[in-house]
Amino acid sequence: MGAAHSASEEVRELVGKTGFSSDQIEQLHRRFKQLSGDQPTIRKENFNNVPDLDLNPIRSKIIRAFFDNRNLRKGPSGVADEINFEDFLTIMSYFRPIDITMDEEQVQLCRKEKLRFLFHMYDSDSDGRITLEEYRNVVEELLSGNPHIEKESARSIADGAMMEAASVCVGQMEPDQVYEGITFDDFLKPQAGDSPAPTRHSGIAGPSLLQTCSLAGN
Ligand SMILES: [Ca+2]
Asked: Stretch 97-123: mean pLDDT, rounded?
C-alpha cells in the first residue's frame, strides 16, 4: 500500500477485488510487511524465517505455491520471482475458511478454489495431471517427518491410493492400459457428495495437506 492519503482507497479497492474485509486486509498487510522486511515485494528467501514452517515436511511445496503463476492467476505454468501485496492476498484467499454467510454457490466456488490450489501442489510440472510420480513425491514428503514410516511404506501408500484413484476415475482398466494420472475434474469427483465410494482418493491427502497449508497463513 502506498502513501497514507491513498491507503484507505487502496484498501477499499482490495476489499472489492479479494473479498477480504478491511480489517483482514490490514492484518494481512502487517503480516506481509513482517515477511518482506518492510519491502514492496516478497521473495522465496523471505520465508526462511517463518518458524511455523520450519518443521513442516512439505515446506518447500507450500513456499513454491505462493509463487506459482497458476495460483497467482498469471499464467498456466511457471513461478514468479517475487510477489507484491495484492499477489499475497490472492494466495491468502485460498486459505480463507468457508464462511457461514456464504450461499451454496459461493461455498462450492470457495471449495473448488481450495482444491485447485491443492491440485497445483501435486501437479508440479503444470501439465494438468497428477501422475503417480508426482503423487508419490508429495506423500513421501508428507510422511518424511515420521520416523516410523519407511520410504518404501510411503511409496506403497501412494501407489495404493493412486490405484484406487484410477479405479474411481477410469473404472475397469485393461491389463495393458496406462493410467495417465488424475485430472482436476477427477480430483473434484469424490468431493461432489453424490459418490458412495467408501474411500476417497483425494480425501486421503487432501484435507491433511490443506491443514498443513493453513499454517502458512497464521
Ligand atoms: Ca503433472
From this structure: 91
Percentage of residues in the chain having pLDDT higher than 70: 83
Every domain of the chain and the residues it spans: 4-95, 104-217
What's the CA-to-centroid distance between 131 and ligand 1, angstroms?
6
Span from the CA of 24 to the centroid of ligand 1 (angstroms): 34
* C-alpha–C-alpha distance, residues 128 and 119, integer Å: 9
Q: Phi and psi dihedrals of 22, rounded to 5?
A: -65, -35
9 CA distance to ligand 1 middle (Å): 41
The pLDDT tens digits for 44-99 are 999 988 888 888 888 899 999 999 999 999 999 999 999 999 999 999 999 888 88
> Ligand 1 center to residue 197 CA distance, Å?
25
104-217: CATH number: 1.10.238.10
The CATH architecture one would assign to domain 4-95 is Orthogonal Bundle (1.10)
pTM of the predicted model as reported, rounded to 2 decimal places: 0.79
Ligand 1 center to residue 129 CA distance, Å? Answer: 4
Whether 104-217 and 4-95 are alike in CATH topology: the answer is: yes
* Cell numbers found for residue 147: 520416523
Task: Please tell me the distance between residue 118's alpha carbon and the centre of ligand 1 in angstroms.
Answer: 13
- Helix, strand, or coil here: 79? strand
CA 85 to CA 101: how far, in whole Å?
A: 26
The span from the CA of 42 to the CA of 38, in Å, is: 9
